[in-house]
Amino acid sequence: MKLSVAIATYNEEKKLGACLASVSSWVDEIVVVDGGSTDKTLTIAQKYNARIIKTNNPAIFHINKQKALDACKGEWILQLDADEVVTSDLRDEILAVLSPQSSVLSPKSNGYYIPRKNYFWGHWMKKGGQYPDYVIRLVRNGKASFPAKSVHEQIKVQGEVGYLKEPMEHISYSTKEDYWKKAERYTTLQAMEMKSLHLPITVGLWLTYNVVKPVTVFVSLFILHKGFVDGWYGLIFAYWSALHYAIAYTKYRKLINKT
After folding, report:
1. Is 176 exposed, middle or buried (0-12, 13-18, 19+ CB in 10 A)?
2. Backbone angles phi, psi at 119, to 5 degrees
């Protein structure tokens, strides 16, 4: 069975190399859909013999992820983000599952969840809802798609979805700047979603987004999901995550004031 890797990129020169190095020697093709990178992203992709498709950089980045899926020729597709790394143990598990002698794979199996080890400032986040962080990454070609409506959505699979055991590494937030760069995009999209719902500006809405939701998120991540086990990292991560709703609310107010 031929295996493709599908990646959507935009200015990922710092992380793309590690991602591609982890898969280039054992997959049949790498497809990179690039949204107009201005750094060395394309040079790195070329180094690993990726097939590059140039396009624009939509606010909903999953649009480009879908383009990457559509361009793949393999029977199976490993969809990755540029900041994800496939370990040797995960590689062996994927190859074993997809081998003709596999006792796991069936005609009804069209996708697999893969657990992720999320890293925050170089620290593996063991709690706070960050591990195991299951995401659908391995899919049968033609049986999976992105709705492309929300930044946090999962890929949708037609048919059975199983679970792999070995985790991939997600080197998402290496620095404070990394975190807030992504948070800026997420909160902007959330504000746009709020605008599409025509939410009325009321005291209740202010309380929901500035008090209720932030407190709920912090308590969930730091206490209920035991983020305190990760110490200072868990505290910062829970606090920053809680701020997203208040930031999105502020952006929403600015959006509707412009109209």
Report:
1. exposed
2. -110, 135
Cis peptide upstream of residue 132 (ω within 30 degrees of 0):
yes
CB burial string 205-241: b at 16+ within 10 A, e below: eeebbbeebbeebbebbbeebebeebeebbbbbbebb
Strand order in the sheet with 29-34: 51-54, 29-34, 3-9, 76-80, 135-140, 109-114, 160-163
Rounded to 5°, angle at Cα 192 from 190 and 193:
65
Q: Tell me the residue range of the domain where 193 lies.
A: 176-258
Q: Are residues 112 and 11 in the same domain?
A: yes
Of the three residues 127, 157, 173, the one that is the final residue of a domain is 173
Report pLDDT digits (tens) over 172-226.
Answer: 898 999 999 989 989 999 999 899 899 999 999 999 999 999 999 999 999 999 9
Residue 180 sits in the same domain as residue 60: no
Using a 10 angstrom Cβ sphere, with 0-12 exposed, 13-18 middle and 19 or more buried, the burial of residue 84 is: buried
Helix (H, G, I), strand (E, B) or coil at 134: coil
- Could you tell me the sign of the dihedral formed by the alpha carbons of 71, 74, 76, 79, in that order? negative
Q: Are residues 193 and 128 in the same domain?
A: no
Domain-terminating residue out of 123, 139, 173: 173
Closest CA to 65 of 1, 16, 5, 22: 5
Q: pTM for the full model? A: 0.91
Query: 15 and 130: one domain?
Result: yes
Between CA 12 and CA 9 the distance in angstroms is 6
Same domain, 31 and 89: yes
**Residue 73 carries which side chain, given as an amino acid letter?**
K
Predicted confidence (pLDDT) at residue 258 exceeds the cutoff of 90: no
Cα–Cα dist 162/167, whole Å: 14
